[in-house]
Amino acid sequence: MSNLKDIRTRIGAIKTTRQVTSAMKMVSAARLKKAQDDVGHIRPYTSHLLGIINDMVAAHPDVTIKYTTPGRGTKVVLWVIASNRGLCGGFNANIVKAVQNLLKTELRDDYRSGNVEIRVLGKQAWKMLRSRNIIPTLLEEGQLSDPTFNKVSMLAEELLDEYDLGILKKSIVVYNEFINAAVQQVQVQQFLPIAIPEIKRDKAISKYILEPNRQTIVDTLMPKTLKSMFYQVVLESIASEHGARMTSMHKATDNATDLIKDLQLSYNKARQSAITNELIEITSGAEALKK
Predict the structure, then answer these.
(1) For 46-57, how does the pLDDT look when each residue is reduced to its tens digit (9 = 90+)?
(2) Which NCBIfam families does this UniProt record tie to the protein (predicted)?
(3) Do residues 75 and 168 make contact, with C-beta atoms less than 8 angstroms apart?
């Protein structure tokens, strides 16, 4: 009977766990919907800003773009965008692996000379990096729980200020790009200096009269574009986190259901065996009394 009691206890514990994972899956699914909408809005906005700048330069080669050449400084800022909470599969682990690989390859010399400053958005990556003897210099958390443009853009603005002051050489961002609810892809993106992609437009910007002048417009748009790009990176990461957690909790719920079925079958077999043994004992006792 003690074996039956143990199985019942395990079934009860797993049912409780399944309730938790199922609730987390539903919460992540609801949050994912909003995060997907946010990503869907910011992507075309950033793309159009880059397209305007690209058109300006294509139509007027005399227009120069700031932030497209390496900075005058020696510092390299590596921004790691992760999550504050766990239970999201390999979401954070994949980011940390990419950071380790980056420090061993492209940033090896700068890292060994002490010129790499690692800034982390998300407690989970902070903990994992420190456990691997990689010590970040800055941890930010609030931007993930309340990812407003003003809060996130301050992080990008700090990079731009360091570039303008001649402190920064370049900046790289490591994050998860949102593909769909089940797929997130780690991206290592150079944030500064920026490479303006060529985006084909229907109409040349040269057909329009621009005030006050093209150079001023480009100089004004560049910081706004970079802030928008950084904000997009954070939103992509948040959507990826919710997608990864929803998928992970869905699998955990299914595994718990399968385990409960197996344990229930074991319980039924053990119970049937116990009943059979009791019947045999009763029958044997009755036969003994007849003799």
Answers:
(1) 999 988 888 877
(2) ATPsyn_F1gamma
(3) yes
Residue 187, domain CATH? 3.40.1380.10
**Residue 146 covered by a domain:** yes
Angstrom distance (rounded) from CA 215 to CA 69: 17
**What domain range is 209 assigned to?**
35-247
State the DSSP code for 61: T
177 closest CA partner among 234, 100, 139:
234
Q: How many structural domains is the chain composed of?
A: 1
Report if residue 270 sits inside a domain. Answer: no
- Tokens 């079958």 belong to which residue? 265
Q: List, as one string, the DSSP characters of 118-139.
A: EEEESHHHHHHHHHTT---SEE
**pLDDT score for 43:** 96
- Picking from 18, 7, 34, 51, the residue whose alpha carbon sits closest to that of residue 243 is 34
Side chain identity, residue 276: T
Mean pLDDT calculated for residue range 211-215: 81
Cα separation, 185 vs 207, whole angstroms? 40
Helix or strand holding residue 191 (H, E): strand 183-192
Predicted local confidence at residue 288, as pLDDT = 67
Say how far apart CA 70 and CA 51 lie, in whole Å.
Answer: 22
The first and second tokens of residue 24, run together, are: 């987390």
DSSP assignment letter at 67 = T
